[in-house]
Design goal:
Elements lengths: L17 H8 L1 H20 L5 H28 L3 H23 L1 H17 L12 E3 L1 H10 L5 E7 L4 H5 L3 H9 L4 E7 L20 E6 L2 E6 L16 H8 L1 H9 L2
Parallel strand pairs: 1-3, 2-3
Antiparallel strand pairs: 2-4, 4-5
Helix pairs in contact: 1-2, 2-4, 2-5, 3-4, 4-5
Length: 263
């Protein structure tokens, strides 16, 4: 069977320095940068009347914090496969060390930064990866029509996503990159944004709180495998750890690719 035809999207013009553009335009990055770098001004103002011994003590604590942060970032850089997850953890660690250093100066300064970080958390959100790869963006009605008509490839792997899910934001580029590798006439990839269609979550048997993202593999229009399981319940203060290796093993993507290439 042939994959459903779709209009070729018009490529968006990318800025010459994408990361710099994101830092300057995305509130999440901009507010965090302003808050973190404001420490130098706060430090200068707070340490004007402090003794030389205390200034040396503070400098030693700052060096210790920078070294510890560098070690943690190096470890995360090796383990984390997505830039979004690495940046999220890096900002979290930086905020923690900043609060600890501010406690050395004055607990009131630390409380001010804590309040600022809470406000940033409320008013902004880390932007997800905005690429689709070889995925097709679908609505719940379009998916229902495709499954009913059966005019798609034998296997259809769907990602149910929502921008309110921190787990999905951290792994938002994983599915798109997998689709670039494994998409073929035998296996298609699609995404449905349940943030736009929250009422459709019950149709797929998922909860917007704790079960996003969810991945469902359809075999000849019938659900064959899903991750996480429909009975999965997220623990408090925990998130789904989505990786390329996990999805490849759970849905046997390598086997599907070998079957297609062997034809």
């Amino acid at each position: 069977m042939e994959a459903p035809s779709q209009a070729t999207p018009t490529p968006r013009k990318q800025p010459p320095i994408p990361w710099l553009n994101s830092m300057a335009t995305e509130p999440f990055y901009l507010l965090h940068l302003l808050a973190l770098f404001s420490y130098f001004a706060a430090r200068t103002a707070a340490c004007q009347d402090l003794s030389a011994d205390f200034s040396h003590h503070l400098l030693r604590r700052e060096i210790q914090a920078v070294l510890a942060l560098s070690v943690l970032l190096a470890m995360k850089f090796v383990k984390e496969e997505n830039w979004e997850g690495f940046i999220a953890d890096g900002i979290f660690y930086a905020k923690g060390f900043l609060l600890a250093v501010c406690l050395v100066i004055d607990y009131r300064l630390s409380l001010c930064y804590l309040f600022a970080f809470v406000v940033i958390f409320v008013v902004s959100q880390q932007p997800p990866y905005d690429g689709l790869g070889s995925c097709t963006e679908l609505t719940p009605f379009q998916l229902e029509s495709i499954l009913a008509e059966g005019n798609t490839s034998r296997y259809l792997l769907i990602e149910l996503r929502a921008s309110t899910s921190l787990s999905w934001v951290r792994s938002s580029r994983t599915f798109a990159e997998l689709s670039n590798v494994y998409s073929n006439n035998n296996l298609s990839f699609g995404v449905i944004d349940l943030g736009r269609y929250p009422n459709a979550a019950s149709l797929f048997g998922v909860s917007l709180w704790g079960q996003i993202p969810t991945y469902i593999l359809f075999d000849k229009s019938v659900e064959a495998v899903r991750f996480p399981d429909i009975t999965f319940e997220a623990k408090p203060f925990s998130s789904l750890n989505i990786s390329k290796r996990l999805l490849c093993e759970h849905f046997e993507l390598d086997r599907h690719l070998v079957e297609y290439l062997s034809k």
